[in-house]
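Q: Convert this sequence to structure tokens.
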Amino acid sequence: MLGASLCWSTGGLFVRSVSIPNSWEIAFWRSLSMGVFLVVWLAFRYAGSVRRAVVAIGPGGFLAGLCLAASFLGFILAVTQTTVAHTLVIISTSPFLAALLGRVFLGELVPVRRYVAMSIALTGIIAMCLDSLTAGTLAGSVIAAGVAVAFAICVILLRHSQARADMTPAILVAALISSAVALPFSLPFQAAWPDIGTLACMGTLQGGLGCLLMTLAARYITAVEVSLLALLETILGPLWVWIGVGERPSDLAIVGGLVVVASLALNELLGLYGQRRTGEAPAALPSGQSV
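A:
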């Protein structure tokens, strides 16, 4: 899951590297290239039987793909209605939603330390965004809340369905849906070939590989852990933009980022200590399942 967050965090750097003014076109090329990457991956893994792998995910997998596509596109809509900072703060409530849904539908108990980590992380993210945080618009807030809910539901569905089938095709479903929805709003295309090449790398590394790693992570860690570690995307993203194009975050944002990283690191260290002390096994798949 750390690898997934690392991949996702490069999104801002990729976007800053293209000259396309239409965010819908960026979303289209990213989703299209992500779909191509996943088709190649699935064809390699299943000896060309991509259709059979897609059918095997069942209704739960298709619903997970739909939720993930909604989170992809919802973020774009949210930031057009309100500030990025306001959107990020609302989306950062996703771990709390995943904790609630995981408890209700999966029976996953959440230790107190994780609630503490989530609360501290949310405080850090608010501090990061404080310089540009505004009240926002009602429409933007509702859409951002929808993104948080959609991502949490997606993680729950992946976690629930992983014991029966490989959920990687659900990411392909998300890529196809999001590219189809973004296409009408992307016309007429304005991207030059260098921009398309950059977005192809974005779709492959940032989108495709990141989501692939998330589906693998959902086999072994709880839904709330997936959502909690996904917050690292918010922290690492400004760091890569700072290194890549010199866009330095504010001092308050740096402090807030350190608070989030410290809370996540402490949560994981306490979890490892607890497993060693009590012999508790990680939240893995039932026996007989493999990566």
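The chain has 14 helices and no strands.
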